[in-house]
From TrEMBL:
This is HTH gntR-type domain-containing protein. SMART domains: HTH_GNTR, UTRA. Residues 10-78 form the HTH gntR-type domain. Keywords: DNA-binding, Transcription, Transcription regulation. It comes from Bordetella bronchialis. InterPro entries: Bact_HTH_transcr_reg (IPR050679), Chorismate_lyase_/UTRA_dom_sf (IPR028978), Tscrpt_reg_HTH_GntR (IPR000524), UTRA (IPR011663), WH-like_DNA-bd_sf (IPR036388), WH_DNA-bd_sf (IPR036390). SUPFAM superfamilies: Chorismate lyase-like, Winged helix' DNA-binding domain. It comes from the Bacteria.
Amino acid sequence: MSNLTQDSPIPLYLQLADILRDRIGKREWLPGTCIPTLETLAAEFQVARITVRQAVQLLTKEGLLAPRRGLGTVVTRAAESPNTVVMQTSLRSLAAMYESTSAEMLTFDESHGKPPAAADAGTLGDSYVFMRRQHFTEGQPYAVISLYLLQDIFQRAPEKFRSRAVIPTLMEMKSVRIERARQTMSIGSADAEAARLLRVRAGSPVVNVTRVFVDKKGLILYYADVTYRGDWVRWEIELQP
C-alpha cells in the first residue's frame, strides 16, 4: 500500500526517498544487503518505475546505496542518526546555540510591516525589519525563523544583523537592554513550505515557537516565529522543587 501523497507539492520521488532513507535508518535494510528491485518497490508504492529510480539515485548520491553488478542495489552504510539541537531555557544559552550554527537569509525586507504579536505581548514600535532565515547544523537544516527586529536597533549594526544570528548580536549590544524574554511552544506538522526547507516529509512533526523580547517600557524589540524539525530538537527544562 502506498504511503505517498499524490497531490502533495513535494515530488513523489522525494517522498519515496524519505521512506527508503527511513528504512535504512531503522535498519530494516542493513548495510551490505540488497534492497528490493525497482519493479518490486514500484508495485509496493504504486508508482512508476522511473519514480523509484529517481529516489534510488538520490540515495546513491547521498552514499546510502550503491549499484553492484550481478547483485542489484546494495545498502552501503546506515543513515546518520538525526542531529540534536538542545534548546535551553536561558537567553544566554539560546544565544550560544545560534552562534554555534549557521544560517542562510531567505527574505530581507525593511518595509514588511509590524509583527503579528498578541495584544498582551508588549507595545509595537513604529517600524521593523523583517528577516526570514534557514538555520543549519553540520550542514543540515534544523529551523526556519521569521523575525521582526525594531528598525532603530537594526540601524545600529545593520551588517552584523544581516550576516550573523540576531539573538547573539542583540546580547552583545550595550545600548540594548532586554527586560523580558518570553517564548511559547506548540507541536504541529510541517506544511509544504516548511517541509521543503527542513527537508522532511509534509506532515512531519515540527516544534513551533513564538519568541518575544521587550524593553523596560514594554516596547517589543524582537519578535520571531520559529519552526524546528521535531526529530532534531530536544528541550531541557529544569523544574523548580
